[in-house]
Amino acid sequence: MIIELFFQYLVAGITYGIIYSTVAIGFNIIYNATGIINFAQGEFVMIGGMTAVTLNAFLPLPLAIIIAVIITMVVGALIDIIFIRWIVNPSVLRMIIITIGLSIVIREIALHVWGDGVRALPYFTGNEITSLSIAGVHISPQVLWVIGVCSVVVIALNFFFSFTLVGRQMRACASNRNAARLCGINAKNIVTLSFVLSAGIGALAGCVISPITYVQYDSGTGLAIKGFTVAILGGLGNSMAAVAAGIILGILESFSIWVLPAAYKDAIAISILLIILFYRPSGLFGSREVFRLKEF
Amino acid sequence: MPGKRVLQMAGLITGVITVQLLTRFTGTGYFLTQLTMSAYYSLVIIGLCLLIGYAGQISLGHAGFFAMGGYISALLTTYNLLPYKDNAIIAVLMKTGILVVRTNLYGSEILYFQPWVACIIAVSMTVLVAYLIGGPILKLKGHYLAMATLGLGIIVYRIVLGSAFFGEADGLSEVPAFTLLPGLKVSGNLSVRISNYYIAWGLVIIAFITLLNLVDSRVGRALRSIHGAEDASSAVGVNTAKYKLNTFVLSAAFASIAGVFLTHYNGGIGPSEASVMKSVRYVAIVAVGGMANLWGALIMGVLLNFLSLRGYFGSFDDAVFGGILIVIMLFAPEGLIRVDIFRYLKRAVSGEKAGEQNDGSS
Amino acid sequence: MMLKVRNLEAGYGKLKVLRRVSIHVKQGEIVTIIGANGAGKTTLLNTIAGLIKTQSGEIMFSGKNIHGLPVERIVFYGCSLVPEGRQVFSTMTVKENLLLGGYVLKRKKMDGAVEDEIESVYSLFPLLRERKKQLAGTLSGGEQQMLAIGRALMARPSLIMMDEPSMGLAPLIVKDIFNIIYKLREGGKTVLLVEQNAQASLRIADRGYVLETGRVKLQGPAEDLLANRDVQRAYLGKDIDADNL
Amino acid sequence: MDLLKAENLNRSFGGLKAVDNISFSVGECLIKAVIGPNGAGKTTLFNLISGFLRPDSGSIVFADREIAGKSPFQVAEMGMARTFQHIKLFPKMTALENVMTGRHIHSRAGFIPSMLHLPGMSREEKFIRERSLEIMESVGIMDLADIEATDLAYGQQRAVELARALACEPRLLLLDEPAAGLNMRETAEVAGLIKKIRDSGITILIVEHDMSLVMGISDEIIVLSYGEKIAEDVPLAIQKNREVVRVYLGEDDA
Amino acid sequence: DTIKIGAILAVTGPASFLGSPEAKTLRMLTDEVNAGGGINGEKIELIIKDSGANPEKAISFAKQLIEEDKVFAIIGPSTSGETMKIKNIAQEGKTILLSCAAAEVIVNPVAKYVFKTPQKDSFAVKKIFMQMNKMGIKRIGVVTGNTGFGKAGKAQLAKIAPDYGIKILVSEVYDKKATDLTAVVTKLKSKDIQAVVNWSIVPAQSIVAKNMKQIGLNVPLFQSHGFGNIKYVKAAGAAAEGIIFPAGRLLVSDALPKSNRQRAVLLKYKKDYESKYHEAVSTFGGHAYDAFNILVKAIREVGPDREKVRDAIENMKDFVGTGGIFNFSPTDHNGLGMDSFDMLTVRNGRFVLLNK
Ligand SMILES: Nc1ncnc2c1ncn2[C@@H]1O[C@H](COP(=O)(O)OP(=O)(O)OP(=O)(O)O)[C@@H](O)[C@H]1O
Ligand SMILES: Nc1ncnc2c1ncn2[C@@H]1O[C@H](COP(=O)(O)OP(=O)(O)OP(=O)(O)O)[C@@H](O)[C@H]1O
Ligand SMILES: [Mg+2]
Ligand SMILES: [Mg+2]
Fold it and tell me: Which residue of A190, D180, E53, E224 pairs with E199 in a disulfide if CB–CB is 3.0 to 4.6 A?
């Protein structure tokens, strides 16, 4: 029984962790290209989920998801083009505040477009009560979907940033924008691209997690805080680390519920995060060297 | 006190008195309620302005400090200790006047901490927490610092929301008035509305003047130097860790005092005061005020809180606020209240024509 | 004519730094600009490169008007800048810095050339080869300067503008750098050089300009400038030595 | 009497030995130069001395006190000031304010007195300002006082940085490439200035690649290469040292 | 002239599921009364203030409404926390407050000017326990959301359980914005329980249902009367089947026998609301409906005099509302009895009466 429970908590923790990680990855992409944190990232997740649910009313699921992702990418591009692109010399704090403002405004718009109802996509396989049972441990097939999508995205991104030229260009823009331009890189387009990419990944995350978590006009904020926590815990900019950190945080939360009142789950998880940061100011997997070289 | 400061102080005091007199003669005394509440929020905001704008350390957790002040003093002044009155310690505390008895609305007796004692305990606890946590937290930089302070705020939020003695989601109510001096009490009661307006503004003005003094001094210079280049700052002998910590603690203390006073004024406090959204609001107002601009922080702090508390934005409170953030950061990243405006006004007043060519000098 | 600047005015906000500056650089030349601190040399190079908006005047590069074009366009046309103060990508490795420098080649569909170019940069600066996996931000000052030059060379520019390339370099390397600049010209490149080391730069240059408070004060063949008494006094510190040392 | 004495200093980054078992001492009122190829470990050595890096092992005695492992501000309080190879000025502050910040350790007012603006502070503040202006005058940048420091041209920024260090009124001044980015005439001026500073009783440790400066002003020179000390001598001897010529100066140095 | 009625509602923010239908209902009713010539010829002026569930705003608004707008009465706030903050203010300002929040502390101890229309939590709890007794359930687990609603439910469950011989083996609180509760229900599963009671509002009630089924915790799930909104059933999908919960009769108004006295009121409200706003009615809107009608009825009877109206409400008997039949008294400012609840369950994605 204890063993079984242990694994059940473990599975729960992994589920949480993967959900957080999918959001954290989106943070990392824009961070990698611009050196800023886009606090409206959670809203991409929300828009993706909401749009897919709306479309799913008259389109088959895969098509609804694809179109929702594309629409969210367009939103991402528009956000960059309207609000970010033409700012000369953006300071980090200024960008943080603009994106916070955006996140608030998008949320309010969503409230007026979709109302305050709770929605969800249907389970990709099975339904609300299906679960796979492996040696007494139960797991919803949707969790496997989330894990699968997340892994594919992380591996693809890791490859993208380390080995493709566009990925490197994104990092170069974050490191020193003027120098990047002197290398012939069109920094503005690169930033737009990073918004498009992270909006797309956010939206995809929103679609695959929505059967589990539901989406609502304001579900972005909570996810964004968790995603940000995980991105920081892992060390900013590194998607693989974000997944590892996400799972660690998820498992911590889950096991904290085993032994302590669930009401303090977040407080406990964040206390642990703080303690880790005090010992490793660059996050669990972040390079200390890089950390020292970063301005902000 | 330098002459400039005396002038500024006189200007502020005149402004505060004028507003009160205006409301009096136009029969709009009710505005004072929201002006009083906004004053307390501004106290948090100017403290945060020192931390963010001058010392360059972001904090996304200041609502936590506000809530710590408010909640602790609310708890101490509402928790009924009567059932324990036979306990030796309680008895001693009663004798010394630290614990006092009041009758509540429904006629039952409550044994509680004298509000002054509660206030001192609340503020010192906040200061202690800020001091202990500030050391390690302020070693972090940039987004990591933002996360850590955000986390601090979330922890406070979770604790007040999850603990039965803090009233969980309902928060604490029926907080008694806080008698500062005989005849002068912090309370939302209609009969003391005017005096409370002056209490709040008196507090804000004192705090504001001390901050103006501070940023104009050697310490202020050191803080700005830390903001700009921490390495170089320590190379000229600034104990950067200590200065950052002191500033952090100072701004936490301001937030905490604001929390204590506003809680007594409102007669209660709820968990929304500790929420992330509140912290974000404080930071945003500092930004809208122009970061390293105490005047901007004060004016925007009063203005935006006043409008929001009056309900002028209706159901669009958040939306309007988000919109303001975006617009100001896009078009006036230095904030709306700029030093040049004052300079311009001064010129206009003294009848000079605004110089066109002599920029860069002066 | 490789580069022709006419009546250029530029500055920061309302502050005007360059006042009707006209210079030109011919194909295959090394042209050097010298001037006191704050004369506007960096501003001039940055304006040509497109980093600073022009207030008025015109800039022609290889017969094209590049005035007002974005930086990346100008680089694509073959005009590269090694910026002042070694702005390397500090959080990326040396190799990655170089690869990014080669981005222009990729855009010109010359992918194969990138590896060759890296090799030739390594042979110019063997130290960089040793440090190719190190993060650029942790390099010593001189190493970063080499990297910055190497990165600009990666684009195979026809005109390379250098803003104080010898700053902070060991004498041996400074000699190397001037040799390299000289060699670049032999390799068909055109160089516009801003240097504080007026002596060395005038020695390798064909022509020179003296910039003072945003105006071209003197211009002419490098030997003439070297021999000019004013230049000697103002920039080579020829007579101060006698008084002070 | 030696003002500064370093013994067996070591510091490595990852596998790289940036400072490898270096010992040396600096006598009072002397100018000592540290030279060596790029990446030899000169800046690292400065960072160790001024408290920005902690040595892996070794001791540093400054004014008869062990300072290895102390933090930069403590070292500064003991009378050591420095400039940086990459200029580090305080942005959004005027040149004068930058220099005034340099007076930090010579003024007292803390948080509470500043907030209350206790009597005596105006006087202290006035004194700081006057003294800073004097120092700026001596460095020749009086007229830049009210310009935002980071808007200045490179060479002007260097001068402000030097003035800021001088405002500390240090016993030992560490200069990391003070002439980088200066033309030959300006370099010569800086040389004069450094000598003047030395003559006013301040000991100077300088890193510089401009040999006309180094050879002209220094009393002694240390040469580093790959983290190791390869020579220590008077300028004339260093110029003739075969090893130094091979790794650093180059053959036909003028 | 006009009678000013103030309303402080959480139209937006975390409790918008309460405030939004409440505000809509009040607007609808005001229009209706005014179209019908007002109350004894006087039109109603409705002032709605959106507090976003922030107590400090509720305080500010209460003072504004009382001192500045000099409203006749205030309807709301939507949440208990806010109501408790302004209870004193209303009392001091001698302004009638008709709260739409659930917690019992609002009317216990009784404050002279403060009333509330939602059913008491304790009645809902008792209903559930009675049902458990019928089903022979003795050991239960409790999960509640960290909202005022959840908090009140948790307290009542713990207080009343012994009266019905029921043991609460585990009680957990989760975040109102929780995205997955597998770990929490796993904790329930590890205890030897026969049923689960969930007391919350918003999506979490559907998540609990789903997660229980997914990890194979197959015991009956009881929900609070907060489950009274068909969208939660839709959200929980297959997992909603068999959930048992107490609710006012609004949700099953069609199924009520003709003889039921509430039937006419319920059907009218449902029809009016749904045709006007094109969304399903919720019991929360009903609280505002009752508050408004009680107030209007009292004013019609004694004229627009605050003290008289207050007395009229305090002595009002047999008022048929959506929440039940109200019988106020000086000691009971809620006026609803246990019979105001029925036990419902979900069958084939619809609400039906449990014992039918
Ligand atoms: N970002 C800026 N904002 C405002 N003014 C600036 C800025 N950068 C430079 N200046 C001013 O422009 C003038 C010219 O600067 P510039 O950097 O072009 O000089 P320079 O000739 O390159 O000097 P150096 O040899 O020291 O590098 C200086 O007076 C400087 O103060
Ligand atoms: N933080 C660090 N992490 C890793 N390596 C470092 C770090 N700092 C310096 N190094 C390495 O240590 C060596 C010595 O660097 P240092 O900056 O001391 O050189 P330097 O003698 O000052 O050179 P220069 O004259 O070019 O400024 C260099 O190879 C450099 O790459
Ligand atoms: Mg320059
Ligand atoms: Mg160095």
Answer: E224
Quote the pLDDT of residue E77.
93
Domain count, chain B: 2
Averaged pLDDT for residues D75-80? 94
CB pairs under 8 A between A and E: 108
pLDDT of B74 above 50:
yes
Q: Closest ligand 2 atom, CA of D85?
A: 27
In a domain, C118, yes or no: no
Domain formed by A2-295, architecture: Orthogonal Bundle (1.10)
- Beta sheet of D57-62, edge-to-edge order: D16-27, D2-13, D57-62, D65-66
**CB neighbourhood size of E304 (10 A):** 18
Using CB atoms, which residue from E54, E64, E111 is nearest to B30?
E64
For residue A88, the chain C residues in CB contact (below 8 A) are none
Contact across the interface for C171 and D250, Cβ inside 8 Å: yes
Give the whole-number percent of chain E exceeding pLDDT 70: 100
Any chain B CB within 8 A of the CB of A104? yes
Which residues does a 6 A CB cutoff place in the pocket of ligand 1? C 12, 15, 17, 35, 37-43; D 151-155, 181
**Which amino acid is present at A150?**
C
Q: What average pLDDT score do residues B212-222 get?
A: 91
Report pLDDT for B362.
31
pLDDT value at D208 more than 80? yes
Does residue B217 sit in the same domain as residue B282?
A: yes
CATH of the domain at C38: 3.40.50.300
- Bigger pLDDT: B248 vs B168: B248
Question: Is there a domain that residue B180 lies in?
Answer: yes
* pLDDT given for residue A95 in this prediction: 81
| A15 with E182: Cβ contact below 8 A | yes
If you average pLDDT over every residue of chain B, what do you get? 87
Total structural domains within chain C: 1
Please tell me the distance between residue D247's alpha carbon and the centre of ligand 2 in angstroms.
Answer: 17
What residues make up the domain containing B121? 2-77+114-350
Q: Is the dihedral of CA B29, B34, B38, B40 positive or negative?
A: positive
Question: CB under 6 Å to ligand 2: residues?
Answer: A 289; C 138-143, 168; D 13, 16, 18, 36, 38-44, 85
In a domain, B162, yes or no: yes
- Domain end marker among B63, B97, B113: B113
Mean pLDDT of B235-260: 95
Nearest CA to ligand 1 atom 12: C17
pLDDT digits (tens, 9 = 90+) for C165-184: 888 788 888 888 888 888 88
- CB-based contact (8 Å) between C135 and chain A? yes
Are residues B242 and B312 both part of a single domain? yes
Alpha helices (H) along D37-171: 42-49, 72-77, 95-101, 111-116, 121-139, 154-167
Q: Is the CB of A168 less than 8 angstroms away from the CB of C92?
A: yes
Q: Which chains does A contact via 3+ CB–CB distances below 8 A?
A: B, C, E
Say whether both B265 and B339 belong to one domain.
yes
Q: Which residues of chain A have pLDDT under 50?
A: 296
- Claim to verify: residue B91 and residue B223 sit in the same structural domain: no
Name the token pair of B209: 């003047």
Supply the range of the domain harboring residue C41. Answer: 1-78+157-165+189-245
What CATH number has the domain bearing residue B260?
1.10.3470
**What number is the ipTM of this complex?**
0.89
Specify if C128 maps to a domain. Answer: no
Write out pLDDT tens, residues D123-179. Answer: 888 999 999 999 999 988 899 988 998 888 878 888 999 999 999 999 999 999 998
Pick the atom of ligand 2 nearest to A292's CA. 1
Last residue of a domain, one of B89, B113, B137: B113
